[in-house]
Write a structure and sequence with these properties.
97 residues; alpha+beta; 3-stranded mixed β-sheet; 3 strands; 32% helix
Length: 97
């Protein structure tokens, strides 16, 4: 039995951020996570959680970008995930405080 090709995580991340850049998304972070409940044997589906600058993405454009990311990842054999967006601000710590 052949093992299906699964692109490395770095390649997947690069596909996502390149697509978001191409679509003009003002993204700040891309995280992958899954949720679990105590005592439950399984996790939720993988969530690719994309942070965007506050007030930079409305509902319809978010759906369009999520569909584009999903399609791009499915094309390379990655599936079983969901896409979510959240507002995110990245700040750098001030050293010496």
């Amino acid at each position: 039995m052949a093992i299906p090709y699964r692109p490395p995580r770095r390649e997947l991340g690069e596909r996502v951020y390149a697509l978001l850049d191409d679509k003009g998304a003002r993204w700040t972070s891309i995280d992958s996570l899954a949720f679990a409940e105590a005592g439950e044997p399984t996790f939720s589906p993988l969530l690719i959680w994309i942070g965007v600058e506050p007030k930079s993405l409305t509902y319809e454009p978010a759906n369009t970008k999520a569909e584009a990311v999903t399609s791009s990842l499915v094309q390379v054999g990655f599936n079983g995930f969901e896409i979510g967006f959240h507002q995110s601000v990245i700040s750098r710590p001030i050293l010496g405080l």
